[in-house]
Amino acid sequence: MAPKVGLFIPCYIDQLYPQVGISTLKVLEHFGVDVEYPESQTCCGQPMANTGCTNEVAPLAKRFLEIFKKYDAVVCPSGSCVSMVTHHYDEYFSDNAEYEELKGKTYEFCDYLTNVLGIKTLSGRFPHKVGLHQSCHGLRELRLASSSEIMGPPFGNVRELLQSIEGVELSQLQRPDECCGFGGTFAVAEEAVSCMMGEDRVHDHEQAGTEVLTALDMSCLMHLDGIIRRQKKPIRVMHISEILVECL
Amino acid sequence: MPSHPKLAAEFVKNKDRAHWHDQSLWFVRSKRDKAAQQIPEWELLREQASKIKMYTVSHLPDLLEEFERNATARGVQVHWARNATEHNEIVHSLLKKHNVTRVVKSKSMLTEECHLNPYLERHGIEIIDTDLGERIVQMQNKPPSHIVMPAIHIKKEEIGELFHEQLGTEKGATDPQYLTEAARQHLRQKFIEAEAGITGVNFAIAETGGFVVCTNEGNADLGTSLNKLHIACMGIEKLIPRAGDLSVFLRLLARSATGQPITTYSSHFHGPAPGAEMHIVLLDNGRSEIAGSDEFRRSLNCIRCAACMNTCPVYRRSGGYSYSNTVPGPIGSILGPAKDPKANSSLPFACSLCGSCSDVCPVKIDLHHQLLTWRKEIRVKGFLPFSKRISMKMMSWLMQAPAMYRFVGKMARSIVPYLPRFMLYNRLNDWGKQRELPIIPKQSFREWMKQNHDDK
């Protein structure tokens, strides 16, 4: 029997960016994955956790485990929400075998695609200069690519996957993995610094000639897109799944 | 005390200056990357340094006593200070005993932590900071804004103006060499007049009872060689077990701090010269409490290289003063609340949780995770603002009720697109000050699934 994948769509993608969920689903199904979307899911609790409100996270973490424990794998188009589940739920489950199992089978979408399904190349065409924003939690929590601070050979499956697509040229950034400044409630609580960080990222992509700005996380892109649209910059923002679905 | 967001917003208001500050520090971070790339075993060194420090912190009482025994045997007089007041009193009593009225001091964040300068000045003692950057901020009557480069926030034009007023240099002078020469002449006089020298300590070695002070200007050496009294002030976490461990830390420190292979001077002190006195003041000031905490113990690994500041995208754009704490940046946002959680309650939130600090740290402090842990502590201690508390409560409640969550989303999608712009973008909406809101879609992902997928 084919493994059954539970699709974990972060709350803000469900409500604000349905096309990201749809693209993720289509890509997974294209590669023969049996996907189910459990409708009772809502939010992993990251906004509350990052504000220090653990009491408010606990019931959501327990809900999450109940909803997703039955699947063979859980896949989510967000490195940040995955890192919440795999790296920051421990305090809510002491010695819980079901959670330990969930931790090991929850994947960021591109991670699942490249490492579990073994998809390293795509045959489609995407004739654009693409700027890859390295979302921090995918980078420095999940280690889906090498960070510029750590010394060692560079790696990164998403970069390789994008490079395999005909027509894609990746932008060369001056700061390859600086934070965009979203940071959840940080975006509002530290509005001035957050927006300056976002603006600096956008400028870096602008000077590098980015036509399409992409990332593993729509939250970073929501923030950057907000700045791009306000400043009327000629950069199109697409979640990685939206590019991949065009290249199937 | 004004909160970090408020002071940061003021700093960012001057965009050109904030950019200049960001780029100056990014340049230092880039130099660090190049220096680290030269060392094939860089990550191994970090791992080793972290383990040595973890060992030290978990054996602190024994190692401190070992250090005291060995230092005493070398003729160094060891003093113990529980807090800043005791520290300052010890230093003052030593100076008084020797009738000292003029002191030179090399850079020491610990004496900043204790506010030693104003204390000694109140007791009629002139104390001159001899590190160029620190002398500049001292002339301005300000604390350092960065722990390695205290005057990184000041432009050379402003230094020219300051030196013109205080040292009588030509008006409008901005040439760094000219200004540095003026400072050198001024400081040379102070070195000659000084009757005692105070230094910090970078590393104290339990095994030998010696200690090491790292400077780029040689000011620690000059300040302690020209007079008969040397007082070294150190936090108890500055200890390392063996002399051999130094090779790990000296290779990491300057590379992480400024991208130099090593500081120009790494001065080893092993007891007083004939006829002179050498004292070392060991300060706790909350450190042993941190050592006892599972969550925050690792923060005592810190060797004060400031790599976390140089890499922090928030620090670079908000400046050291926005933290209102002796040590700013990521490590300061952990140490600050440990000292006074209420006054420093906004610091753990002055962070986008990007994790760059943890990856750059040469002693592998899990800085961003400790900041996250501090947020929980702030919440538990009741210092989280009401607005955040209530909004998180409501959000959690909503997310536990899927039907209500669906309903609220549907209502928003049917109302928001028809609202006039002024109702969406106003002073209540901090998101929308400089950013557009997302374009509201016609349906949610789950609605699309119901219509297009589930029936298939």
Summarize the entry for a quick read.
The complex is a heterodimer of chains A (248) and B (456). Chain A is of the alpha/beta class.
Query: What would you call the shape of chain A?
Result: globular
Based on secondary structure, the structural category of chain A is: alpha/beta
Decide which structural class fits the backbone of chain B. alpha/beta
Q: Which architecture of the largest domain in chain A would the CATH scheme give at its second level? A: 3-Layer(aba) Sandwich
Order of strands across the main sheet of chain A: 2-1-3-4
Write down the overall mean pLDDT of chain B: 97
Number of strands of chain A: 8
Distance between the termini of chain A: 25 Å
Number of helices of chain B: 22
Can you tell me the residue ranges of chain A where pLDDT is under 50 for at least 5 consecutive residues?
none
User: What is the CATH topology classification name of the largest domain in chain A?
Assistant: Rossmann fold
Binned, the helix content of chain A reads 40-55%
| SSE arrangement of chain A, N to C | EHHEHHEHHEHEHHEHHEHEH
Characterize the biggest β-sheet of chain A: 4 strands, parallel
CATH topology of the largest domain in chain B: Rossmann fold
Helix content of chain B: 40-55%
> At the fourth CATH level, what is the homologous superfamily of the largest domain in chain B?
NagB/RpiA/CoA transferase-like
Q: Can you tell me the number of structural domains of chain A?
A: 2
